[in-house]
Design goal:
There is one protein chain. By secondary structure, this protein is α/β, with parallel strands linked by helices. It has one domain: Aldolase class I (TIM Barrel, Alpha-Beta Barrel), CATH 3.20.20. It has eleven helices and eight strands. It has an eight-stranded parallel beta barrel, surrounded by six helices. Helix 7 runs parallel beside helix 9. The radius of gyration is 17 Å and the shape is globular. It starts with a strand and ends with a helix. The mean pLDDT is 96. Bound molecules: 1,3-dihydroxyacetonephosphate (13P). The site of 1,3-dihydroxyacetonephosphate has 14 residues, from strand 8.
């Protein structure tokens, strides 16, 4: 019913030329790793899209931007609009990553506007939500995560836009730390997210993919991806390594 999505998030790594060299190796190796039951995507800096697009399409790998402007155009120095990402080859865009919420003071209102901007550009938003450790310790993880979700859903009025959403549950304390949520915790939160989606859009909740992100790696991917409401992964560090990403692709295919 839901096609699992294995998506890398390269963050601020590699130059455009290094990206092309990496992808050339990845594409050659991917041919020996069946992935017909899943989707594979790579979130890269916008500068890398033009070089990767001609390679990624034939390899059946989708490309994602890592952020976009909430504006479509205008006097916004340094911003990159959704239409620019789409024209450069992206079909997805990561929105509201915790690193942007923390480093760039991205509020729920900004994230809501960015999700809407992504849909105006025809991009599929990968909406990142997740609690920090203090919120989990205080027993507020679910409330925080669902508030972030509901705020973003306010930016999506049309059913078609909501159906196109991908949600990534990324507990902030698990990102880049080597600590991973247990499979049970990932499933419990993903089920809560789907429950909130069902309240908001009863007909669509079962179509929305919910990814887990936070130190996903070959050693834990299979268990996380086996959970009923975990429909894929958003992978940071491990997605920089061809063999590690391929092992997670294998885990996704096996779980699908
Ligand atoms: P790591 O896999 O490096 O923990 O990063 C996860 C992440 O932030 C993906 O968006």
């Amino acid at each position: 019913m839901r096609t699992p999505l294995i998506a890398g998030n390269w963050k601020l790594h590699k130059t455009p030329r290094e990206a092309v060299a990496w992808f050339t190796d990845f594409r050659a190796a991917l041919a020996d790793h069946p992935h017909d039951r899943i989707e594979v995507a790579l979130g890269v800096p916008a500068t890398h899209l033009p070089g990767l697009a001609p390679l990624a399409g034939p390899a059946g790998v989708a490309l994602a931007g890592q952020d976009l402007s909430r504006h479509d155009d205008g006097a916004h120095t340094g911003e990159i609009a959704g239409a620019m990402l789409a024209d450069a080859g992206a079909t997805y865009v990561i929105v509201g990553h915790s690193e942007r919420r923390a480093d760039h003071a991205e509020t729920d209102a900004v994230v809501r506007d960015k999700v809407a901007a992504a849909r105006r550009a025809g991009l599929t938003p990968i909406l990142c939500i997740g609690e920090v450790e203090a919120e989990r310790d205080a027993g507020r993880a679910e409330a925080v995560v669902l508030d972030q979700l509901r705020a973003a859903l306010d930016g999506l009025e049309a059913d078609a836009d909501c159906a196109a959403l991908v949600v990534a549950y990324e507990p902030v304390w698990a990102i880049g730390t080597g600590r991973t949520a247990t499979a049970d915790d990932a499933q419990t939160m993903s089920a809560a997210i789907r429950g909130a989606l069902r309240e908001a859009r009863p007909a669509l909740a079962d179509d929305v993919r919910i990814l887990y992100g936070g130190s996903m790696k070959p050693a834990n991917a299979a268990e996380l991806l086996a959970q009923a409401d975990v429909d894929g992964g958003l992978i940071g560090g491990a997605s920089l390594d061809v063999d590690a990403l391929l092992a997670i692709v294998d885990a996704g295919q096996a779980a699908a």
